[in-house]
Amino acid sequence: FYTCAFGGRGANLQKFILEQRAALSSALTDHFVKEKLESKDQVVLSSKQPSPLTKRQRTEGSSLPATEGFSKCDNIPQMHSQNILSDKKITCRVKHQITKNFYQFLGNFYCFDGPQLLCCAGKRGVIKVIDTTRKALILTLSGHGDEVYDMKFSPIDEWLLLTASKDESIRLWNLQSATCVAIFAGHNGHRDSVLAVDFHPLGNMFVSAGMDTTIKLWNLDNEVVSQAIIQSRERKYLSGQNVHDSKEIKSQNETEQHYNSVFRTRFEQIPCFSTKQVHTDYVDCVQFMGNLVLSKSISNAIVLWKPDLSDAKCGYICDKVIALREFHINQCESW
């Protein structure tokens, strides 16, 4: 793995089990207490009546006290074993019902209020989402065609994840519905590996940098991306089957409904800002500081600068930079 990030929410397993165990234990205990009382009444009634073995022994002349003593001793371990079996039944049923309720609980992402999820990615280009509470891999996001170098979660939506890859693209994911919301690449995108990304504190844009020495700002407030984010929250899980190969979809209306139900990833090729004026070598780290940008290059320099976005609303890709401060550091050629 090259990078990892915490975001989203996992299942609050400890809280769920404590609540379920208390409720189910009291309910099942009351149920088995009634069974115990009924079984005691049956045992008492059976102990008052002579057993078939006692009648036979009386006809053969055996002593009455020895026979009665044997029947009483035989009833005592039976009562003890019934108590043990009842306790085991309670424990097994409680565990079974808790497990059943928990997996129903896992189907609803809106109930997740536990610790954050751990996302890891690296050489294979696959993002793995791990629930640290359940200690299990719950989701795998595939889409990048090469190594993933960086990932960041949105500061305003804990389910939105940005990933930067060697395939010259940035992808926006929604972990809540396991969808790729948008791909930022193409004609005006990066021309080499994307090494770093970061969200603006307001979550309305993000910055990216890479081996092509450019730094780009991408807008998330435009109509296309903002609508895609809203639709990704409403999307349900699909089987992923091909419409043409499906035997269930027969009519044209059903085919159209199936196409409409599949989430369509948006493609953004035009950033709102792009510049090569800050650095002349690989830019391997970039971060927002309010409306300012702090970027680092392998040319032993960290630069604090401000992008000029005054012409961004006219559809023009801005490239003006206001340099504020430059910090020189040594031995940062390796990234």
Distance between the termini: 15 Å
- Gross geometry: elongated
Q: Supply the number of helical segments.
A: 5
Unreliable segments of 5+ consecutive residues:
55-85, 237-250
Strands side by side in the biggest sheet = 5-6-7-8-12
Topology:
Elements lengths: L2 E5 L5 H36 L3 H8 L4 H43 L10 E5 L5 E5 L4 E6 L6 E6 L6 E6 L4 E5 L4 E6 L9 E6 L5 E6 L4 E5 L3 H12 L17 H10 L4 E3 L4 E3 L7 E7 L2 E6 L3 E7 L13 E8 L7
Parallel strand pairs: 8-12
Antiparallel strand pairs: 1-2, 2-3, 3-4, 5-6, 6-7, 7-8, 9-10, 10-11, 11-13, 14-15, 15-16, 16-17
How does this structure look, described?
The protein is of the alpha+beta class and 335 residues long. The chain contains five helices and 17 strands. The strands form four sheets. Strands 5-6-7-8-12 form a five-stranded mixed sheet, with helices on one face. Strands 1-2-3-4 form a four-stranded antiparallel sheet, with no helix packed on it. Strand 14 and strand 15 (292-297) form a beta hairpin. The chain is elongated, with a radius of gyration of 33 Å. The two termini are 15 Å apart.
Keywords, separated by commas or semicolons:
about 325 residues; alpha+beta; four-stranded antiparallel β-sheet; 5 helices; 17 strands
Q: Can you give me a brief rundown of this structure?
A:
The chain has 335 residues and is an alpha+beta fold.
